[in-house]
Design brief:
The protein is built from twelve helices and no strands. With about 300 residues, the chain is an all-alpha fold. The N terminus is likely disordered.
């Protein structure tokens, strides 16, 4: 190594001059412990655990009763009041409301997690490439993001479902398309700051390829705000999917999805308000949980907020 390279390597983070990346285990463990101690995050995690445990354990506890299939209908038992057999009563088709809520949690959370995961997979590379390479690449990516952001989120999702068709897969795609511009903008803003750091300049001076710099240094050190953004977007994804289901263009019946259950129960809001209350409370609880968890992650991962 030449004297110039030695001087450049001196500004690399500890261990980078020897070719070793610092182990993230300690930082990840400390962040996880801090998150578990955060009051808002604790509430969010507890609410999410209730949903997850309920949707996994609930059907197992109720499987002996044939009416606990979400598709089971018994018109002779329509609008039944809560009882030992049907803890939350039945809907207009005699289906157990609690069972449909438990199974609906699976579909609703799957839509939220699947759509945001797809948005992250698309948004992170686009944002990183846009920030690091700049020039016409940055202009092209940002104009695409501007075009998508020019449309109201829900109307864009509604239009995409109208083009693609209804169903679980198409709802996930529609919600992902409306979400990835936010991820792209966030990773770009973070990467613009990271790419000017001394260790990135040093790696560039040492002849490390631009692709390696982007994926070994720029992207990993730009992920903290993206994680927070993705967590907050999960709540928005639930609302968008529920809105599509409420209008009847989302996940189709008899598949239990909270928005679809709201849509079917709206005509009974005065005669049996419980049918619209239960899925509404589930939507509020899930969105609140992700927002509280996102606030906790922001406080833990943002160094400017640490004391």
């Amino acid at each position: 190594m030449t004297d110039e390279q030695l001087r450049v390597a001196a500004v690399l983070p500890s261990g980078a001059a020897a070719g070793a990346e610092p182990a993230p285990d300690a930082r990840a463990q400390n962040s996880w412990v801090a998150l578990l101690k955060h009051r808002s995050a604790q509430i969010g995690i507890i609410i999410l655990l209730i949903f997850v445990v309920g949707t996994l354990v609930g059907p197992l506890l109720l499987h002996n009763n044939p009416s606990n299939n979400w598709e089971y209908q018994n018109l002779n038992n329509s609008f039944a009041r809560p009882s030992f057999q049907h803890l939350l009563g039945t809907d207009q088709l005699g289906r157990d409301v609690l069972v449909r809520l438990l199974y609906g949690t699976r579909f609703t959370l799957f839509i939220a997690v699947g759509s945001i995961a797809l948005a992250v997979i698309v948004g992170i590379p686009l944002g990183a490439v846009s920030a690091y390479f700049g020039g016409w690449v940055d202009i092209l990516v940002q104009r695409l993001v501007d075009i998508i952001l020019a449309f109201p989120t829900f109307l864009l999702a509604l239009s995409l479902v109208g083009v693609l068709g209804t169903g679980l897969r198409n709802v996930i795609i529609a919600v992902a398309v409306t979400s990835f511009p936010n991820i792209t903008r966030m990773i770009r803003a973070s990467a613009l700051s990271v790419r000017e750091q001394p260790y990135v300049e040093a790696a560039r001076a040492l002849g490390v390829s631009r692709t390696a710099i982007m994926f070994r240094h720029v992207v990993p050190n730009s992920l903290a705000p993206v994680i927070v953004m993705a967590t907050l977007l999960l709540g928005g994804a639930i609302l968008t999917a529920a809105g599509l289901g409420f209008l009847g263009v989302g996940v189709q019946q008899p598949t239990p999805e909270w928005g679809g259950m709201l849509g079917q129960a709206q005509q009974y809001i005065f005669s049996d308000s419980a049918l619209i209350t239960y899925p509404g409370l589930c939507i509020v609880g899930a969105v609140l949980a992700f927002n509280l968890l996102g606030d906790g992650l922001r406080d833990v991962l943002d160094p400017r907020l640490k004391r």
